[in-house]
Structures are given as C-alpha cells and as structure tokens.
Amino acid sequence: MTELFNSLLGPILAPVVVAILATLILITFVLVSAIFFVWLERKVSARIQDRLGPTRVGGKFGWLQTLTDGIKLLVKEDIIPTDADPMLFRIGPYLALAGSFLAFMALPFGYGIVAQNMNIAVFYMLAVMSTEVFGIILGAYGSGSKWALFGGMREAAQMVSYEVPMAICVLVPVIVAGSMNLSQVGLQQEGGFWNWLVFRDPFTFAAFWTYFTCATASCKRAPFDLAEAESELVAGFHTEYSGFRWLIFFMAEYGSMFAVSGIATLLFLGGWHTGVAPRELTELLGPSTFGFIVAGIINVVVFIAKCWLLVFVMMWVRWTLPRLRIDQVMMTCLKYFLPISCALLLGVSVWLAFVPEVIQAYLKYVIALVCVLVFLFMVYKIRLTSSVLPTAGFSNFWIPSAPSRLQTANKSSV
Questions:
Q1: Torsion sign, CA atoms 352, 107, 40, 167
Q2: Confidence band (pLDDT; 50, 70, 90) for 398?
Q3: Which domain holds residue 230?
C-alpha cells in the first residue's frame, strides 16, 4: 500500500496519508469492537444467568441495543463534581483510551497487515498498555471522591503487579521463536495447528494459561475487578463519571481486552493461520492481486475470530466466578503467578538447551492430540447436557404470551 501511495502522492505526502488512514481504520475497529463486545457481554451474562438479555431494540436479538445506549450516553449531561480537579477529571479517560489504542499500531492482523511493523512489537504493546493506568489514576484522583481514589489505588497496585508475570510469560514464546517481531512469530506458526507455539512444549502450554489469567487481571476483569468493586466502592475509579467520559473508560477496557487477546493469539495460537492450510494463504492462492486480497481477508477474519473467542472466555469467566478480595488478588499474583512464570522461563530455557531436537519435534504432536481429545470430550458432554432457555411464559414484542385463565374468563363473560 505504501508503494501505491508513493507513486500517487510522492515520498513526502504518502507516509502522512498512510498514517492517517491506518489511524482512522484502527479507531473505527476499536469503536465497532467495543459496541459488539457490550452486546456480547449482555447476551453471555444473560445466558449464564438464565435470562434473555436484549431482545427488543434492533430485532429479535437486540443488535442495536448498544448503539442506542451509546447515543443516550452522548446526550447525557456532562457533570463535573464540585470537589473535582477539572483538568485531571477531563484528561483521565482520554489517557486511558490512548494507552489502549496505541497498542493496535503494532498488532498484525494478517500477513503484512499491520500499521507499524516493529522488531520489538510485543514489548512495545505491553509498554503502551501499561500507560492506561495513568489515566485511571488521574481520573480517580481528580474526581475528589474517596471511593474513586480507593479504586484508582487498587488499579495501580493490581496492574503493576500482574504486568510482571505477564511479561515473563511473554518471554517464553519469544525465546522459542527467537524474535520479538509479532509478524515473524506469526509466520513461524504456518501449517497445521500442531505448529502453534502453545503445543511446542509443556512450558509454552503452561505459559499460555498463565499469561491469559494475568492479562485478564490487568484488564480489570472479574474475578479481578477490584478497581470497580461496586459492592465495596460504589463504582470504583469511575464513580463520579457519566455520559461520554464514562463511555471512554469502557472503550479503553474493551480495547485492552482485544489487544492482550491479540498478543496471545500471535504468540501461542498461530496468529492469523487457520491451522488446516499447509502453508501461508498468500502463497497458496498465488501471487495475483486478487489472490493476495482474498488471502488477506481470510487472514484478518481468522485472527479477529480467535481474538473474539478469547474475549468471550474473559466474559465467560466474569459471569461464572465470584469476585476475590483485594488481598487475595495480590497474593495470587505475588505468591503464585510470579514464581510460576519464573519457573516457566527457566524451564523453557533448559528445555531448548538440553532436550534432544527429536523429542522437541515430536512432542508437539502428542500435546496437540491430547488437547483435541479433551476438546472432543467437552463437546460430547455439552451435547448430552440439556439446556433450554426460559422462553416459556415470557412475553415479548414478537411472540405474545398465552392469555391467562382470568383473561379468558373475562373475555367469555363479555
């Protein structure tokens, strides 16, 4: 794309236009993803709690419910508390969103589909996502509320703590791949799904689950959402926020959820590869422009689907497990995840240095086979478990409920 704009606009103006287009595309994607995630979380929570969720606005499944709620938030009154610091109160949400959004600049969605291809992409993403905490702390401190301040301090302690084991777990696949360039790591996992780094050895397999748990905690998701903790702190760091600025905080949260899921997908789950194609799709579909475009679209769809699946798991966990106490959250990080991540880093180093290459080459097939068998067993058990939505007796716009005996008796008497 850069070469095309260079030929049309010249070498000076072309990089500026490409940067603006990439920024607009990524902002649009983050916004649309946030809208979809809010709808998905409502439906997931409803399903787990035996409810229906949104069913009226935008059709049978309530597709437009989130969009109408966004319009409502845009027109709500913008209130700044009397005791708040106006500048800190205003700038906090935008700093949080900036830290979340900047991570997308180095996130490859497919082969060559990345805003800025960096040799240190993975640690750039971790670094810029860690700046989200500054916006939360400033917003909480500037609110002039003790509940918001408590939530902000909890978020600072939690995020700083969990970033350490999360970064150490990231080092495990980086050592195996020999690169911090996410595009290069993704290319190394082409072919069958057994080539994904999560199946490479026992240490990368354990590192994936450890990383994903720490990433869930760094995104303030339950059961680690002590920064909000409405049962203790009213609403935590965003207690005094409403309207558009409240919306910005949650856009940053959902953006961070997708970003950490993108890192997990690229480092462990094969990136944009389908897991069934023998080679990179751009090579299989030929060097033609049409084949390259089709392969790029498939790669992007596969990558986004994997990331959305991990975000769905975060939502699943949120509405399944109860919230921990703040001391339990910190103890889980410092007493368990930090030693485990250090052991995994040491273990993968020893594994690569001393285990024969023959064992390393064939063990991935064993781990992949065991995971497939476990997955098939889970699907089998799910098929045997009966599940019926509580639709009987609930009236809605499309299917009116059956008349009660009293209504039938009144109608007959008339």
A1: positive
A2: very low
A3: 78-389
